[in-house]
Amino acid sequence: MSLDALLSSIGERLPIPDFLTRAVIQSFVGRTNRKLAAEGADTAAFAAAMTEQPIAVHTDAANRQHYEVPAELFVQTLGARLKYSSCLFPRPDMTLDEGEVAALAETCVHAKLEDGQEVLELGCGWGSLTLWMAEQYPASRITAVSNSASQRAYIEARAAERGLANVRIITADANVFEPDFAPDRIVSVEMFEHMSNWRALFTRLRGWLKADGLLFAHFFAHRHSPYRFDEGDESDWIAQHFFTGGIMPSETLASHFPDLFTVDEQWWWPGSHYARTARLWLENYDRNIDRITPVLKSTYGKDWRLWLRRWRLFFLATEGLFGHEGGDAWGVVHVRLKPVPIDA
Length: 344
Description:
The chain is α/β, with parallel strands linked by helices. Helix content is 45%, strand content 16%. α7 links the parallel β1 and β2. The longest helix is centred in the N-terminal third of the chain and has 22 residues. The protein starts with a helix and ends in a 5-residue tail after the last strand. Keywords: Methyltransferase, Transferase. Its EC number is 2.1.1.-. GO terms for molecular function: methyltransferase activity. Pfam families: CMAS (PF02353). It comes from Sphingoaurantiacus capsulatus.
């Protein structure tokens, strides 16, 4: 077992001070970044190797780790709109709620959303973007897909409370889902990182879109080097407990399928935005721990104390990863893609 795995194991079971945990995380992240630089970036080879994988793997593990956990944990931890992905902070004094709204608004601009469109959202989380789009574009029909029945129930309840009749939620596995309409826009926020074969995924999405439709994706990424989270590696704590089957794309990965989609426009959010998001999540988590503890007890039983510390470590690790090098090494990609005509 590596030193990092040993310290993570101790950190799961003992109340190690955050300053020490952050130091270990920075050591591990720095070593990972140097290792990626030494190996050299080969996004083209990574994109080609994706064809050997199914569209998504370990979808049951993703559900257990994030999406079938009771909504109340996230209600007490996230911002008011339950955006379980990077927020955007154009000003350093912005609150988490303001960061959620800024990110949602910029997402809609980058996706070129307009009222009256048919919009398909893939991987809708707890409905932050789904409900925002339904509110901002009342003449649009928003169809959102999640692998989680509990997320569907939560979003449907919030839509009913707000009188939103233009929302439809579908529970489905990304490997087999097929829409019953041709969307003007397909949008996805932090779902592509769970997809193992982007070529197969892009092939399906191109076939779904209207001829003049657009695909928009928000995903976290490394600047240069894509890699897979290795659940077989004892030192890969994130893969073991929070991101089984996931990938870390590179900034340019989406551009490596030019026969299917071409890049219309692309943006980079420095990782400092995600680091601040995670830090504010941790502050909420600690502030509301009395409300969170019963949720952890009901979810994890006798292991609830272990998971109390694991969630804290997850937020600390997210802050440390995306804050590395001032947010330049890891960050968030926004990309708008145009489908290549099928008969081209």
